[in-house]
Design goal:
There is one protein chain. The protein has 256 residues and is an alpha+beta fold. It has 3 domains: 71 residues; 68 residues, no CATH class; 98 residues, no CATH class. Helix content is 34%, strand content 25%. It starts with a helix and ends in a 12-residue tail after the last strand. InterPro entries: DUF1444 (IPR010838).
Length: 256
């Protein structure tokens, strides 16, 4: 099929599904619900020539158009927004589109709608379409996550590395709750602690000294391979700031 025949056929099929279709400046424009979506003619025809299967190309691009329309029309349910701790760039090449805030050297706070068994990560496009900004989302997410509770308990009776007592859907993001912050301050006696985020459910806290640093490093190297990894680094947390723990700065502790 030559280019002209392909474009005519494709546009006729699109007209059966969407409000208005037009070809201009070597682009196919789809107008639906007040939105303009365009597809470069050269791109879609090149794909067709590579596989020579019109049906596959048609179904692929119709689905892409529908997905884009859904994305642009998405209404955020603010009552479900929570902050989520993930490793930086966890979403690969799509990571730039997601709303996020730096938390540590290799971790970010992302924002998502909690839909029970899945999370829908919020994009910068979602903010624009819902007249929201990062400050508003951050405030709402903080209020929402404080509805979740958990308790830090020692993982061993003698070696006081603390972990989460209960499994829950927000995992390590419980670090951001007021309740866990108070427990962290108690463990560190308000002098700071060591913290690890090996994977999305394994959260580690201990006193700030070399003895616990070595133990937490081993736990982090083990935990990062169990499930969705976050960070194999150990952080020092003090005065609300996270930074990589430097062995040279750690307090010494003799354990008999």
């Amino acid at each position: 099929m030559n280019k002209e025949s392909f474009i005519n056929r494709f546009c006729n099929d699109l007209k059966k599904l969407f409000d208005s279709i037009k070809v201009k400046d070597n682009n196919i424009y789809i107008i639906e619900k007040g939105m303009d979506i365009y597809i470069p003619v050269e791109d879609i025809y090149r794909e067709y020539m590579m596989i020579n299967d019109y049906k596959v190309i048609k179904e692929k691009y119709i689905q892409l158009i529908k997905n884009e329309i859904l994305r642009c029309n998405h209404k955020i349910d603010t009552s479900t927004i929570i902050p989520v701790i993930r490793r930086k760039d966890f979403a690969g090449r799509n990571d730039k589109m997601f709303v996020k805030k730096n938390l540590g050297a290799d971790i970010n706070i992302y924002y998502a709608e909690d839909r029970g068994e899945l999370l829908r990560y919020i994009t910068y496009g979602d903010l624009e379409n819902n007249n929201l900004d990062l400050e508003e989302v951050e405030k709402i997410a903080t209020e929402n996550i404080n509805r979740f509770g958990n308790t830090l308990v020692p993982m061993d009776n003698e070696i006081k590395v603390f972990g989460l007592k209960f499994e829950n859907e927000i995992g390590i993001s419980v670090f951001l709750t007021d309740a866990i912050q108070k427990q962290i301050n108690k463990i560190g006696k308000n002098r700071g602690v060591l913290i690890g985020f090996p994977n999305e459910t394994m959260f580690l806290v201990a006193e700030d000294n070399k003895f616990y640093f070595d133990i937490m490093q081993d736990l982090a190297k083990y935990g990062i391979h169990l499930e969705k990894s976050v960070s194999d680094k150990i952080y020092r947390y003090k005065n609300g700031k996270l930074q990589f723990a430097d062995i040279g700065d750690l307090h010494l502790k003799v354990v008999k």
